[in-house]
Amino acid sequence: MILQELSEAIGVSGNEDAVREIVLKAIDGHATDITIDAMGNVTAIKKGTGKNRPRVMLDAHMDEIGFMVTSIGSDGLIKFTNIGGIDERILPALRVKVGSDQVPGVIIWTPIHKSGGNNNTVKLSDLRIDIGGSNKDDVGGKVKVGDRIAFDSRYMELGEKTLRGKAFDDRVGCSLLIDILQGGPYPVDVLAAFTVQEELGLRGAKVAAQRLNPDVGFALEGTTANDVPNPTAELDDDIPPNAVCRLGGGPALTVMDSSLIVPPHLLNFVRATAEKNKLPYQLKTSLGGGTDSGAIHRANAGIPSAVISMPCRYIHAPTAYLNRDDYDNTLKLIQAILKDIQWDAVRM
Ligand SMILES: [Zn+2]
Fold first, then answer.
1. Which residues are catalytic?
2. For the chain, which terminal residue's Cβ has fewer other Cβ atoms within 10 angstroms, N or C?
3. Of 262, 340, 327, the residue nearest 294 (C-alpha)
4. Can you tell me the distance from the alpha carbon of 218 to that of 320, in angstroms, rounded to the nearest whole number?
5. How remote is the CA of residue 52 from the centroid of ligand 1, in Å?
6. 300 CA to middle of ligand 1, Å?
7. CA 258 / ligand 1 centre spacing (Å)
């Protein structure tokens, strides 16, 4: 597992180079037909040992949410916009890294003793990034308009089970896909796609799926767990009513989201495979958000697609948490799917 290296790499959408380098190095010698397409997707094929089996696309996106420099003020403060979905309320006082030189900065906002209670709504347009420069020329020598900005966050292992880091959405999917390619062989052809610009609308996956033209597709994702305390509940009421899935509950299988309805026969096959192998799983029915499978299932003449997600807390924020058992169980489930999948799981 090379999750730490993947998590600490910076790959804000449209500038995934650092992640791509890690992926290419990790899969070298473990797959054939390794290609970087015009958009920057990395695709690779791991030939199967079986005959007349469906060709299975496994997808993980390399990009992460972040920001982009839009202008530099005469005061040396940087104005910026978001790349992907970010809750502005979490931003004030966060540390960031700006541009390819990873210039350290802090997101600034009105200090509490100046806000006077009238300015309590955090708006992206009111925020700036301070890299310690005193004027436009000074700052302009270090960063430029269009530079990507990423959260400054270190990977950590908290005890035996909890892993903490940046961009688990979707570096955890990349890590799983690398583990799959480094293992095997499998009875089916595995068509791997490490995609770009998922966070901006599933852009890379569409192109990758059209070219690979698989018989079935799976997006491997890090998804929001939202198993956080219910603020209106009593302290000892630990059942969050709005959890999407839970850390430690096993891989989350999407039933439907805003981009996709998983074909029932495909979902049933995945559930039966988990049960046969005594692997825990949970069903994700939250309608918010989409994944690369939203693009894959509409590529070419249609490709049956599903989503297998790792539950993550605090997603789209500088530090997400995930559970190591979930990782191991998700990997085992994907391996079992590759071993067992036949045409009846794929065809209507
Ligand atoms: Zn994602």
1. 198
2. C
3. 262
4. 23
5. 32
6. 22
7. 13
Give 183-252 as a DSSP string: S---SSPEEEEEES-GGGTSHHHHHHHHHH--SEEEEEEEEE------TTS-TT----TT-SS-TTS--E
Distances (CA, A) of 95 to 90, 108, 167, 197: 11, 10, 15, 23
C-alpha 14/C-alpha 158 separation (Å) is 31
Looking at the structure, give the CATH architecture of the domain made up of residues 66-151: Beta Barrel (2.40)
The architecture in CATH of the region 3-64+166-345 reads: 3-Layer(aba) Sandwich (3.40)
Looking at residue 165, its pLDDT comes to 96
Q: What pTM was estimated for this model as a whole?
A: 0.94
Strands (E), the chain: 32-36, 42-46, 56-61, 66-72, 78-83, 95-98, 103-108, 128-130, 148-151, 156-158, 162-165, 190-195, 216-224, 252-254, 256-257, 260-261, 282-284, 305-312, 320-323
**Do 3-64+166-345 and 66-151 come out as alike in CATH topology?**
no
For 239, residues 6+ apart whose C-beta sits below 8 A from its C-beta are 230, 233
Instruction: Lowest mean pLDDT of 9-13, 106-110, 242-246, 320-324, name the range.
Output: 242-246
Mean pLDDT of the chain: 92
